[in-house]
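Late entry, evening session. Most of the bench is empty. Finally got around to the prediction I had been postponing all week. Sequence below, unchanged from the version circulated by S.P.
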Amino acid sequence: MSGLGEAIGSFAVTQWVSRKSRKGFERWQARALRRWLDRDLPRARFYGKAPRELSDLPVTDKAQLMANFDGFNIAGVSARDAWAAASTDGRLGELTVGASTGTSGNRGLFVISEAEKYRWLGTIIAKAIPDLLWRRQRVAVILPQNTGLYDSARQSGRVDLRFFDLRLGPEHWRTALEDFAPTVIIAPPKMLRHFAVNQFAINPLRVFCAAETLDPVDRPPIEAFFRRPLDQIYMATEGLFAVTCRQGGLHLAEDSVLFEFEPAGDGLVTPLVTAFRRQTQIMARYRMNDLLRLSSTPCRCGSPLRVVDEIVGRMDDAFRLTSARGPILVTPDVLRNAVLKADRRIDDFRLIQTARETVELRLLPDLPDEAAMAALEAVRALLALRQATVTVELIRAPMPLETDRKLRRVECRLPHEAAP
């Protein structure tokens, strides 16, 4: 099948599945998963044979994948060769290699075929902009790293896609972006907010945030500037995991990924993902590092795909503290809410655990003192309630736009071995 044929087929399947009932969808998903377990998974040397049930497979993670990279892809591509390809044009014969930016210094790799690139294109168009296909779209992707995934969009004839390198900073490409006049924008929330603050001359039909956690404090100014709802694309090195529908529901991509969930406390879960439509790099029962809050109700759009109420952040950024009762864990959403609810004038901050018993609260110098003190006391009160042994220090400092790293307003800088 041609690349365009793969995209059209994937678009059609994605649209067709979205019209099923939940029971009908689960039957379809179970059949698709079984075919993949029997046909595709055994081709990766790490597995070698089909399991009786998905649950018979071991849980894997990034460390295991990177230590045995050639065992997880059917072409036997080594991590060394993949890194070499990723550092140039991303081509390795007929395969495409990409790499993550490495939020916590732990970069990951992926390898995909040409057919998979076009399937990805058809899927994301079906989920993100199916109603806009009546005319050619100009899509601006503003991310820290270009990948071969976007080549399929450029070659499709329906999408004029341009990549703007976040790492260079908007001062290098603002004029080019405004001249491009994108109809669709995909960018991290911090960059969309920068567009709003600096009044960029752009008026897209759809606005998607991606690549970073969307904090509640960022949504209002972004939506006010663009005069449109802010949607999300939840995507990582490991694949496409969720896209917002036109009714505002962030739907898991269960039509290409089977999700299992491990409880993480406070109603949050960490996903295990099995990508049953990927055939080159096998991803089965792979533990993600993200914290999700799932919705208990279906979306009003009628899709059978489950909805995520909130992508809270990363498990790595939960604070790991000590107390008289032993080790405690405080998740990013609880910490973030403590700061933001302290005073409505707070619209930016950093809360960083720098040592086992030290936390820094960073606020802007021009924030009124009473607001800063309210936030400081709110964080101290929260951690005292948890009986944590910790000192919270207030630092007043500018927080300029950083384009060389992901924005993490709540961040744990403890090495894993330092965690209690």
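Two things to note before I forget:
Residues 3-313 form a domain with the Rossmann fold fold (CATH 3.40.50.12780).
Residues 117 and 151 are 8 Å apart (CA to CA).
Will write this up properly tomorrow.
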